[in-house]
């Protein structure tokens, strides 16, 4: 019986790299995204099926699930990967932006999970892998909405794992650090807070310090995909898969020294008074 994985947000970055890797490992991949029209890369694989799925639209999720079940009699793994980040001063954000951040990263992930859970229950097995981030365990400046959404994913996933264990369904978390993808491009929305002059000193210090951070080594999307594959196949009770030296270092420091020391470390790194 072939192994089948459903991936959301597969149009680029981690989602696309994961789809390719699983296809190369002879899995049947259902790669979903909001728009499949311009997706040429994944069409090269015979064992990748492209489907339209918008995680913020329940009707779209239900339709995608129905189309999958018309062709396949089971699903082994659901990889909730769709997401984006809003970057900027919280005071400059709008309610629309706040809601959009959570609609995709949290409520969309929850909706996909809820709609696909009956499939796993009927099978009496399955695995849900959620893309979190080191930003679900530690925080950086100007990403308050993104961190809030990823902290929510962490709490949701961990608590959900208790009830789903009764159905022989597992939940795992992928926690990448800084990754070489288009995350800072089309997957990140920049909020312009230039009109808030009181933040000028803070922003100047942050921007100068951020250059050093951006020049530090980063993981590739393929590095993350390898850990997704490990999570899907290692049959272990391990829940969190931390990827990248930066993520490992930051999370290890916070675990060993506590939240207060970790916050002071970040403030020092970004020259924040």
From TrEMBL:
Source organism, top-level taxon: Bacteria
Family annotation (Pfam families): adh_short
Name assigned to this protein: Short-chain dehydrogenase
Organism of provenance: Leuconostoc gasicomitatum
Keywords: Oxidoreductase
Classification of source organism: Bacteria, Bacillati, Bacillota, Bacilli, Lactobacillales
Sequence similarity: Belongs to the short-chain dehydrogenases/reductases (SDR) family.
């Amino acid at each position: 019986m072939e192994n089948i994985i459903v991936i959301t947000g597969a149009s680029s970055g981690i989602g696309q790299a994961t789809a390719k890797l699983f296809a190369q490992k002879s899995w049947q991949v259902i790669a979903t995204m909001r728009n499949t029209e311009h997706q040429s890369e994944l069409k090269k694989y015979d064992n990748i099926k492209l489907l339209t799925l918008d995680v913020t639209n329940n009707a779209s999720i239900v339709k995608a699930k129905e189309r999958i079940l018309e062709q396949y009699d089971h699903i082994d793994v659901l990889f909730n990967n769709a997401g984006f980040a809003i970057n900027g001063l919280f005071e400059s954000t709008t309610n629309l932006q706040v809601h959009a951040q959570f609609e995709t990263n949290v409520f969309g992930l929850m909706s996909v999970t809820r709609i696909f859970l009956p499939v796993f229950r009927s099978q009496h097995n399955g695995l849900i892998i959620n893309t979190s981030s080191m930003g679900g365990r530690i925080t950086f400046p100007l990403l308050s909405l993104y961190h809030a959404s990823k902290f929510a994913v962490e709490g949701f996933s961990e608590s959900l794992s208790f009830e789903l264990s009764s159905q022989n369904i597992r939940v795992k978390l992928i926690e990448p650090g800084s990754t070489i993808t288009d995350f800072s491009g089309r997957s990140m929305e920049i909020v312009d807070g230039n009109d808030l002059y009181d933040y000028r000193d803070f922003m100047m210090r942050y921007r100068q310090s951020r250059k050093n951070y951006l020049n530090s080594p980063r993981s590739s999307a393929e590095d993350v995909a390898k850990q997704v594959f490990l999570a899907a196949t290692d049959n272990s009770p391990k829940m969190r898969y931390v990827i990248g030296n930066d993520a490992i270092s930051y999370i290890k420091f916070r675990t060993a020294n506590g939240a207060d020391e970790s916050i002071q470390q970040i403030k020092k790194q970004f020259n924040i008074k």
